[in-house]
Amino acid sequence: MTQDAKSPSVSPIEVSFPLRRALYTTLHIHLTFLATTTMVFLTTTSTGESKGVTRPMGSFVYAMPNRLHHGDTLATSMYTTPNTIDYARRTAQALARRMNMPVYVGCSIDLSGQVAEEETAGLAQIINTILAKWEEVKEKKEAQS
After folding, report:
1. Exposed (0-12), middle (13-18) or buried (19+): which is 52, by Cβ within 10 Å?
2. Global pTM?
3. CB distance 39 to 57 below 8 Å
């Protein structure tokens, strides 16, 4: 079987870390960097949850950079859940703008009980972590070429 430009450039990457300003909350990120797009899935777990607890799907958003107006992004919601759509949309738009490629974001993060500063700090931490992993993957690909 031959690999083409649409096959995954790397195997999926999974990252977990505690959110800085949200005690007892761990964020889980599942990343797949493809040749022409990136797929991101976000969810959280809290200390004290049973192992069998699953979160609902949450929202699923597609965003891409606007080629006519740089710095702007176009986004569409493919599946929405009221408590996750804003976070999914902001994450997708920020990543599409910074990576300059289309991004799919699935988000089932539970932010109940957090204030705006905690949400903003969490978003920045997510974006920075994903961009750092993306840079690592790009460097590995360049080193192999």
Report:
1. exposed
2. 0.86
3. no
Q: How far apart are the first and last CA of the chain?
A: 21
CA–CA–CA angle 42, 81, 16 (5° rounding) = 10
Q: What is the DSSP secondary structure assignment for residue 119, as one 8-state letter?
A: H
Token pair, residue 43, equals 């969810």
Whether 4 maps to a domain, the answer reads no
Residue 23 has pLDDT above 80, yes or no: no
Tokens of residue 79, six digits: 């599946």
Range of the domain at 24: 13-144
Average pLDDT (45-72) is 82
pLDDT of residue 20: 79
Residue 4: CB partners within 8 Å, gap ≥ 6?
none
Q: 21: exposed, middle or buried (C-beta count within 10 Å: 0-12, 13-18, 19+)?
A: middle
Structural domain total, the chain: 1
